[in-house]
Design goal:
Belongs to the PrpF family. The structure is a single chain. The protein has 371 residues and is of the alpha+beta class. The chain has a 17-stranded mixed sheet that branches. The radius of gyration is 20 Å and the shape is globular.
Length: 371
Amino acid sequence: MSTHVNRAMEYAPSDLRAVPCMLMRGGTSRGPFFVEADLPADPAQRDKVLLAALGSPDPRQIDGLGGAHPLTSKVGIVRRSTTPGVDLDFLFAQLQPDSDTVDVTPNCGNMLAAVLPFALERGLLPIGDGTTTARILTLNTGMQCDVTVPTPAGRLQYTGTTRIDGVPGGAAPVSIEFLDTAGSVCPALLPSGRALDHVAVPGLGTVAATLIDNGMPMVLVRAADFGIAGDESAAYLNGHAALKDKLEALRLACGPLMGLGDVKAKNYPKMCLVAPPAAGGTIATRCFIPHVCHDSIGVLAAVTVATACVLDGAITQGIASVPAGRTKAVSVEHPTGEFSVELDVDGQQVTRAALLRTARPIMRGEVLIPC
């Protein structure tokens, strides 16, 4: 394998502003990563830069780096941390192709997988010999986790045999161990205080649902209650306008019950249809993020669904096939495969959640935006 060589390149002057960034894939998501100091300190000015960088608002994001989908309309902003015991601070920003909003309230576990590789690429932390581990604070919600990447002989390794469904080929593993995810955005793991709620929804009547947040605010409902088998393709569900309208009506009704207020303009809670596993896993899912059916499932959504599977009385009871033992490997099926989450359980408490992702840089350089 050849060694990367930096070559200085000169360009003609123009009226565009060059902002250093790296386009990175983290898990099943993708977007530009920035060192915080390279962006404006004022949040409003920063958001203008991010919108221009991704090309929003425009359904095709034809004038930017966005990929015309919520999963490829994401941004990571990283800095060295001043919090005792923490190495890196990570601010996640969710943009939308056809909207001028920049949402920094939710987490994204997929983009989280790219934070440490990006920080090592940019020299924010020293590279270890063998592996490098960093504690990362997600500024959006205050969540902390320990992330480990392979760095044999002090060199970043991206190639490998670890496979995650939703990403072609194999890559080096990125190990993520979450330290405290319960009630990341909501007031508690079960914000209503119940494992199962019966939510009154205008036009729908009463809907049984589990309202839960173990890293991602989510509303879990039985697919069968919506006339869905739970094994449909994402494309089919995205074309099912009546189903999406019902899920949105339920989402709006659940917002206040979860302590989130009016969620009409928010990217959470995510909606998730659950069904019995179809391919030997623990549970089958079809997640909406929140208005588009996910081709797979988000990292923290998978952690949250897995958590519901081990709670007595949750909507998943009688549907999920949960393994025995205190440490449980929960396989969350999704439209393009499965997502494995390892949970340590003490009674009704989840004391640890860990998983593997992969990540890699796609491009190093500068994004050009209007001044």
